[in-house]
Write a structure and sequence with these properties.
It contains no helices and eleven strands. It is an all-beta fold. The mean pLDDT is 96.
């Protein structure tokens, strides 16, 4: 049974930083490309989640949404089966529930990030 468990969310002031983690089990983590998605307040459907960042199975290639380029960094530790998202220079518009994802359709339960003064 595949499990993805996100941690690290919370309340942070604008300009602050957070690091999200996603612990994976039940799959050969090193064989999967992984992604972070987010669901903004008011978005109720899974289809409304937006891609934040993705990383190849080996970690050699990454991709970011334009809105987070230069502020967020996705990384992974295949020895520990953990996916990370380092979020710096946070803005109020980054407020969302953040999910990790692996194909074909594996989602974590999400972690809330709130950016507010």
């Amino acid at each position: 049974q595949v499990q993805l468990v996100e941690t690290g969310g919370g309340l942070v002031q604008p300009g602050g930083s957070l690091r999200l983690s996603c612990a994976a089990s039940g799959l050969t983590f090193s064989r999967y490309a992984m992604s972070w998605y987010r669901q903004a307040p008011g978005a109720e459907r899974e289809e409304e989640r937006g891609l934040v960042a993705s990383i190849t199975s080996t970690g050699t290639s990454t991709n970011y949404a334009d809105s987070v380029k230069g502020r967020f960094t996705i990384s992974r530790d295949n020895a520990k089966n953990i996916l990370y998202l380092q979020m710096d220079s946070l803005k109020p518009e980054d407020t969302a529930v953040y999910f990790c994802f692996a194909l074909p359709n594996y989602w974590g339960q999400g972690t809330q990030v709130t950016v507010s003064s």
